[in-house]
Specification:
The structure holds 2 protein chains of 2 kinds. Chain A is an all-alpha fold. In chain A, 65% of the residues lie in helices and 2% in strands. Classes of the chains: A mainly alpha, B mainly beta. The interface between A and B is medium-sized, with 35 and 35 residues. Chain B: WD repeats lie at residues 184-219.
Chain lengths: 638, 458
Amino acid sequence: MVSTEQSCWFIRKVICWRAVASIAWAVLLLPPITLVFVIISKFSFLHPIQTISECLYLLTSASGIFSFILLCGVILIVGFLHLEYYTVIPTIACSKIALLGQLLHPRHFINSLVHCFMGVIVAWCCAVTMGLRYETLGYPCTESDGHPQMCLNEYHLILLLAGAFVGFSHSLLGVIYNMNYVSFHTVQQYKYLRFKRCLPLVVKCSATQALYSVRNYIVMYLFLGKCPFFMNKMLVAQPIHLLTALNNFFQIDYSVHPLDSIAGLLDLSLLYHLWSSATFLLLTWNITLLLFRIFVTEVYSFPVQSSFTEDSHQCLPKVLTEKQPMILKFLALQDLALLSQHSPSRRCEVFSLSQPGGHPHNWNAISKECLSLLTDLTQRLVAYHDTVATNGRAKSLSSGKDLMSPRPVFLMKTPASVFARSVAGTPQSPLTSLFTPDLDSPFASPALRRLTAPVDQCSPWYGTVQSPHIMRRAPKLWSTSTGEVEFQKSNISFSTHRSSNIQVLSNEVLPEASSQALFADSQAHIWALEGLSYLVQASFSEDQFGVVQTTLPSILSCMLVLQEAVDRHFKLPHASSKPVRSTSSMGDSTYKTLRFALRATLKTAIYRITTTFGDHLNAVQISAEHRKRLQQFLEYKE
Amino acid sequence: KLHSRTESSSKAAFLDHSETLWMRMTCKHTNSPVIDAFAVPKWLSMSSGCILALLRWVSSFHGSLFPHLTLSSEDMIAEFSQVLNWSDCVVRAFAWHPHTDKFAVALLDDSIKIYNPKSATTPTLKHRLQRSVAAVQWKPLCASALAVACQNCLLVWHVDPCSLSTRPSSGCAQVLSHPGHSPVTSIAWSPSGSLLLSASPMDSTMMVWDVAAESCVPLQRVGGGGVSFLSWSPDGSHVLASTPSALFRVWETRMWTCERWPCVKGRCQSGCWSPDGSRLLFTVQGEMVIYALTFTDAPGQLSHSGPQAAAVVADLSETTFSTPDGDIVVGGEIQSLVWDPRGERLAVLLKGDPQAADRPAIIAVFKTRANPIFELLPCGFVQGEAGAEPRLMQFHPNFQHGALLTVCWSNGRITHVPFYFVSAGVPHFGLSGSPLLPHPQQRPADFVNQSLFTEFLS
């Protein structure tokens, strides 16, 4: 109960305001973007003056203002969706079927539908802005027998559908590329400078993404153009029919080119307008996303200790141990890493003793939390390695048995049951459930569940001697982060022939995805390592009471054990292969390289301690094996 | 047959293949169809000509603003490298490991050799992309990583210190490149070993690399036309970034904001930081003086209470000395500055005059003291064998008995010049360096002790 209250504190006071600020900036940036779009869409080389007068007229007209208000509304909704869907730990699909499961998850599906709808709204605004042949859905035409009639304006329709298509594909790509993942930067910069740096990139991404979306849309429209056309004819005809209060049917003018033909679609001006409105749509959304990321990841400085007891839950040692809003934990760890590097006065507070009693509570809480994070990662790596090793043996020994009796493992679950569970299993208070991904969901990254769950209970990673059979009971079904899919791959490959298609699909484990997923939350570990090592380094000259000395052996052995586990992990195939760098996408692919960053940070952290203490480390009580390892570091042979 | 066609028939052959309706139409009006087939409408050729002329004009304007942009990349490296006469220098770059007694040497043939007194093997690093090496630097707080600034990219080698292989494969090297960011002339690791900076005179952005993730953050500021030289202060709080024009910047590394420092005369040629990061010494091309900037405040507040102007701390204008071998003229422009890690010796590489025989390039060494006031006292000169001139120098990062200056000479020799002294101030605890413990066996004698030539106090 206390925990929810505190998370409310942080979400309410910080994250919400940051989100509001980012949305406000996005809305403020909308007029210039719209102006540029209007000029681009209306510009003609031959009549520049006329272009300007048309633009001015449009911007002051009632329809122009109305569509602008609509656009603001769309931005608000997009910003709200970002606030609701963002995550600091990416969900990594380990197989194709897991990805499909993510896409079809009701949560994402609703998101896609909303985006689709908003795409239509934006496209309508674009149509109004561009005017000319796009402006209205119907237009008056005369039938062959001379009757005045309303005909369907296919140009308007194609634009609206393009908006829906682009919005939908944007949201799908968002799931595939983890666009809701918010990464933290190693280089701190002011918000304005960061925005300025990223803006050209966002414009480029939006333009290219719009190009591909329009291409796909055109191809789709070419083949399926008739279906939406007739459907729309039926649906749309009615209101206009009523509106005009005429008994005429709403018809197409067959004298013009039908647009679902190649000739009709190869209209350069139409393509240009489709592309520019898709770019406009994606640009406004991506800028909202960019602003949200920049604002949310801004450094927040937590007080190390407070003189008032009612504020004590906002202090760094308390906040670090919080499980619930991941963003809070991440920001606290980031703050720890920064204060340990840059701020001597705050380091001094960390090393200080409590006033009555003289206990180093601050240091104890901080070091304990960091060490438990690192131990957790070590156990995870060891367990993963064990399962991979066991799998190799199990395959050779019991393949025959497996062939006969395919076990009811996680793959046998149908999506329906999975969904039912995830929908029913979120009885959280509405506020917290907004910002914390539902942990029961099989789509939530297990890494996340592991971070939030207490380490010592029901975690399959606790203890290194558990058999893989026990682990299979863990509630990770579709997007397992532990290579569970991989270690079962060989077992299942025998039964594939007789099983459903789902198994065939899920069999193709995406290379290195399991390794990525294993390190999905490693940003937290990186900060813990940095914070610990810098604090230990500073303690050499700043720690007056020797509070760090008591924990130095456990810190060293924890890091050395982790180092061993990481080294072992990188000997596995796929673990050390670099992912393909994708530059022209809004999705943040930082998580793909987190394991390399962790490896480098870990080594640097150990070297930082050994370089600072030098031969004094020989006096530290650690096991002989660790001492041998440490000697390697002291001699710079690692 | 194709090959039997004579020269005169090639015209017909061309027409056969490429005659289209449009060409035939143009042929009707002209006598020489081949040429006119490619004729474009007059307005198009006019306008494209205009655009080309405009582009040329803009680029020439840009080039006149920043004349270095017209140099070839080899010339550019030679111009901005800290090495004297880089292009014909046998040793093109040199780097001591920050913690152990090993060093890397980049040679004229674009290979890099790593020498370690404790190991019999000398690994030779060669890579397809390793051309025109301008700088090498070891990663601090790491045993194996070596960053190499090449013509088109940055390479980060991971040379396993325990490996017995003499030719590490190119798989051991990470390639870091960014479009437009070449040639790389200067690199700098952060003293904490987490970030790598790279700079190119062609690119006005400075790259901050996260090497493990192979991602970079470009830091761009308008003006200067590029970044030619980088130097990270030993405490990690500031970075000196000089540009090819008369301007340099001092970045603070917490939020990555910068201070602009316009120079009067030329570009900032070289610079070095005191061990505590509070004082920056730099030289300007075309001037014969050393300037100092003092940063007294905490990092992060650079722009509020930084120094207002640079102070001249030493004048190195030409002076004549009479030696037993005849008169010798010393002084002039400065090629590079290095400060020993304890902040007690400053070595200055003077360019000299390649035309005049009595004005060779020479290294002048100063004693420095930071407390109670900053002092710069002449100490002596370092001269090589006859005919050899110093090209490149670096202090050993943790020499126990004083300071050890390593000099690379034009004849390909590398010599170590030790300075034995008792440390005057309290030992510094740099953020990255190992704690310096007092050593009882120091010999209070300077190895090089020649006549003084100027005396300056700040």
